[in-house]
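To make this tangible, we now present a fold written out as tokens:
***
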Amino acid sequence: MKGDRKTAIRSDDSQELTTINRRGCLKLGAIGAVGNFQQFSEWLLGEQSARSGIGHGFGGLPALDERIIPYFQESDLAPAKRINTERGIHSRFGGADTYEVSVDGDYLFADIVRESASKTAAAVVVGGGRILDAQYLGAGTTRLAASATSLDGVVVQVFNLDAGAGTYYLDVSEPEQAPYDEQWNLPGKIEAEDYDTGGAGVAYSDTTDQNMGGYRDGAVDIEATSDDGGGYNIAWTDAGEWTEYTVGSDAGTYDIDLRVASNRGEGKIRVSLDGTALGTVDIPQTGGWQNWQTVTVPDIELDETDGSVLRIEAVEGGYNLNWIEFNQAGSIESPPEQSPYGSSAWEIPGMIQVEDYDTGGAGVAYSDTTDQNMGGYRDGAVDIEATSDDGGGHNIAWTDTGEWTEYTVDTITGTYEARLRVASNRGNGRIRLLLDGEVVGTVDIPKTGGWQNWQTVTIPELSFDAGDGRVLRVEALEGGYNLNWIEFVDSAAESGDPISTPDDWSYSAQGYGEGTYGGVEA
């Protein structure tokens, strides 16, 4: 985690210690103080503890409170040692070691490393005369954290409750907030799960220590999302929780769009920049925790900034959040440009691999009736799968009426036969070819006996003028076929091959109403 300095500790020259986190470790309450610490700890861990009124915490150990922590038995304290964030201290447990810490900021981490946990030991952070955090010390690294509520006269105390507890290493650090990857630039989209590094109280606040989901360390609850584009969303939100993001912005007026889902409604989000509230928005009931809607905080004026901190805060929880997008109000977004997939136009005469349609996205280089890519090979909604046709590669599949793909082509003047490599377990498909928006021909797709039983169909006598950077569209007038490639052959040079008839008319596992459509035969 950026800004969170860690010290690599080895117990000898060859063995590296493991690291543990603080989840499940004990929080603490405050009860009164007692006398001599050594006598008290012996009494506590002996038979007397079974008859005392002392509360017990994790694993049957007593709850860490003022009755146990030697800081509160001042007569037993050895003179405090000073420690800073530049270097750690390696020492042996020997009662109670107390360290004064100088802190410039508002937060403190204290990492204590032990070789083993066979003997009981603990540590505490005290500020302003009260307990800020306390933990029993397991094997490896245990982290204590203190926030800005009171860092006045802060001390870290490390002590053993059993003799022979061995050695420990203490390292203190002040977390620094930094972008998770790099600064987010506005206008633009921010992925909510990629909040800043720095840890609890610095880059985020969460009402529980447990991460209910995954994706990254920390207490912020994150889960995989089924929203368009995939990725992750923040979930299990509760009132008072927040995440922060380092941003830079252009001056202008913005609409802030937030992508939310809630099965409950009644959520409310506040958006702030450098501590100043920009606006709030109510979260509607969207019909499910993965049923997504976009809500907007409109007309927000921003100055030009760099290194500013955006905070997204749950005034009321009960919603999921996928992303936040700043769009300049009234601006018209430039449409994406269409260009060849492999940077070079296809040449006619020649063969076009149909899965390598142009870049530019939906509505520009292709149109598909569903957002989901049923296959793979490349991003986008066009359904593509591996092919078992000669030469291998991929084919377009799961076609539906009205879908199309486009290809940038350079043509040479001539008369051509278009050969299309198709497969269909259903038949009744129909393909139309257009060049620069003009229809040049159509062809019916026969029933070939399987979704990977391939035939070549032809459109003869297509006359093309010479031209560079032209656009060929392949359109499904009727779907229900797979398409592997299209080849344009000069009619003057070749007469064309006859349409083949498959030897094997066995049906595959695919079919509209007869099995799954689009896949390779079982």
Q: What stands out?
A: Residues 1-58, 496-522 have pLDDT under 50 and may be disordered.
